[in-house]
């Protein structure tokens, strides 16, 4: 258990520091946005490019691994939308946001530093595979649902607009370039490798501080029943479903451990981005992210205690 605390403790302590400094008015929302811009445009692309360029990639695409994570993700996305509509009375234009809050994992801001801290380089490739697929799968779907339910249409330009955003995303571009360099057998020059390592090493800390600042901007209140349902889907049902399907599909144990830990991550901040973008259920989604982050600290600790314990 001490090993788990060694991994989890610094991660959530960094989030708490960002939260505390934001509440003390040392950092404000603009600071958080600047950190996120640095992270998305420089730190994480540098880390992804360097890691993927030198990684040992699987000879074939691991479809069973991808299915073990994203079939439950899509199922829970749909379930969250259906329950939000039929049980909670959400409007049609709000259902995409419900799906995001119930199924979109915070892989970048929290899952990435946690998995790398727990599993090291061995967790990098499965982490990047899941990271590469999440936004391309769920962003267009969420945009379509939000646009479909908004009579005047949203400002994102529909699914085509979502696709344009994805294609221009620095994280997506770095994933594609890193894989291309790897498959082409290219070796990064030492100065470039050192530069990418320097920039990439700033990513985890910036991500966690930015997450804490973002959580400090959220104001609680609203619909506790809605929040409880979405948190249960994201923090409990998601990792359980990934674990069960992964075992059924015969996914290798070390990769399955990464997938289950990532599934236990809290609702991603992009759920709030969509809620704010379309001006729907902003308070409920913000509260879901806060509660989900707190719950994930416990769930992730228990999972890491299980996966980091050597078999007897």
Q: How is this structure best described in words?
A:
By secondary structure, the protein is mostly helical. The protein has one domain: Na+/H+ antiporter like fold (Up-down Bundle), CATH 1.20.1530. The protein contains 14 helices and no strands. The model is unreliable at 152-156 (pLDDT under 50).
Summarize the structure.
This protein has 312 residues and is mostly helical.
Instruction: Please tell me what the overall shape is.
Output: globular
Distance between the termini: 15 Å
Mean pLDDT: 85
The CATH topology name reads: Na+/H+ antiporter like fold
Low-confidence stretches: 152-156
Q: Please identify the structural class as seen in this structure.
A: mainly alpha
The profile of the biggest β sheet is: none
Number of helices: 14
Strand content of the residues, in percent? under 5%
Secondary structure tally: strands: 0
How many domains, as an integer?
A: 1
Order of helices and strands: HHHHHHHHHHHHHH
